[in-house]
Design brief:
With 194 residues, this protein is α+β, with helices and mostly antiparallel strands. The chain has two domains: 119 residues, Ribosomal Protein S5, domain 2 (2-Layer Sandwich); 64 residues, Alpha-Beta Plaits (2-Layer Sandwich). The chain has four helices and ten strands; from the N terminus they run E-E-E-H-E-E-H-E-H-E-H-E-E-E. The strands form two sheets. Strands 1, 7, 8, 9 and 10 form a five-stranded antiparallel β-sheet that branches. A hairpin with a 2-residue loop joins strand 4 and strand 5. Helix 2 packs across helix 3. The longest helix is centred in the middle third of the chain and has 18 residues. The mean pLDDT is 89.
Length: 194
């Protein structure tokens, strides 16, 4: 499985219709509506804002007024076929006056998303965990050394230090000497090995 590291965009024209696909890396679904609303403001005269996303094991597709199954599902199918996760793909269409038919729409949305993916920087995802560990201050230096290749999400300094970070499934043993809590299981970017 893979994901993208940054926002990617491409544009194609098929029979006078313009298809603009924008790919966003996502970690949760709370910002998706805002991203789509911002695109509607950025491209106010577009006819359709079709999208799909795969977030961990959840997926959704939306045709936004195109004939049922001709836009959102083709976008989603590309993501699934290419095993792309934690990505929102939005294709904005400006109608060019020539009807493409159901098959033409499916091919156009599919092609637009594939081209955007071809221009993306992809990284591998693997199963991992979001963890929470609380340590005393005198352990901070040693603990941060253990986490040097991990993605630290949050640090809280109170009577002790609490870390939230992502760990691959096969790396839990390095923190076994500390009390840890598994917050959830998710797909994470591959962490480099030493």
């Amino acid at each position: 499985m893979k994901t993208i590291t940054n926002i990617t965009q491409n544009e194609i024209i098929i029979k006078n219709s313009k298809f603009i696909t924008i790919l966003f890396p996502i970690n949760d679904n709370t910002k998706i509506d805002n991203l789509i609303d911002n695109l509607k403001k950025q491209y106010p005269k577009a006819n359709h804002y079709c999208y799909a996303y795969v977030l961990n094991n959840y997926q959704k597709a939306n045709d936004d007024g195109e004939p049922s199954g001709t836009a959102g599902m083709p976008i989603l199918n590309v993501l699934l076929k290419e095993k792309i996760f934690n990505v929102l793909a939005v294709t904005i269409r400006y109608f060019g006056g020539i009807k493409l038919g159901a098959g033409g729409l499916i091919r156009a949305y599919t092609k637009s998303v594939k081209l955007a993916l071809d221009n993306s920087n992809l990284v591998t995802l693997k199963k991992g965990y979001k963890l929470k560990v609380t340590i005393p201050y005198n352990e901070q230096k040693n603990f941060e050394y253990l986490l040097k290749d991990y993605q630290i999400l949050k640090k809280e300094f109170n009577q002790n230090i609490t870390y939230e970070f992502l760990s691959p499934s096969n790396k839990l043993q390095i923190i076994d000497k500390y009390n840890y809590e598994i917050l959830n299981e998710e797909y994470i970017r591959e962490i480099k090995e030493n």
